[in-house]
Amino acid sequence: MLQPQFEKNFDSWRLVARDLIANGTSPNQINWNQDVLSLFSFEAGENNLSASRQKNQKSNLMIAVPPEFIELAKLVSYARDDDRWNLLYRILFRLRFENANLLKISVDADIQKAESLQKSVRHDIHKMHAFVRFKKNIVEGEDIYVAWHRPEHLTVRPGTPFFARRFGDRRWSIFTPDESAHWDLKELTFGPGIQQNEFKATDDWDEVWKTYYKSIFNPARIKIKMMKSEMAPKYWSSMPETSLIQDLIREAPLRLQNMIENQNRAAVVDPHLTLPELKIAAQSCTACPLYAQATQSVFGVGPHDAEIMIIGEQPGDQEDLAGTPFAGPAGAVLDEAFANAGIDRNRIYLTNAVKHFKWTQRGKLRMHQKPTGGEMHACKPWLEAEIAKVKPKIIIALGATAGTAIIGKLPKIGDERGKIITSLKIAPQVILSWHPAAILRASDEAESQLRRKQLADDLRLAIQSVSSFPV
Ligand code: URA
Question: Under CATH, to which class is 275-465 assigned?
Answer without folding.
Answer: alpha beta
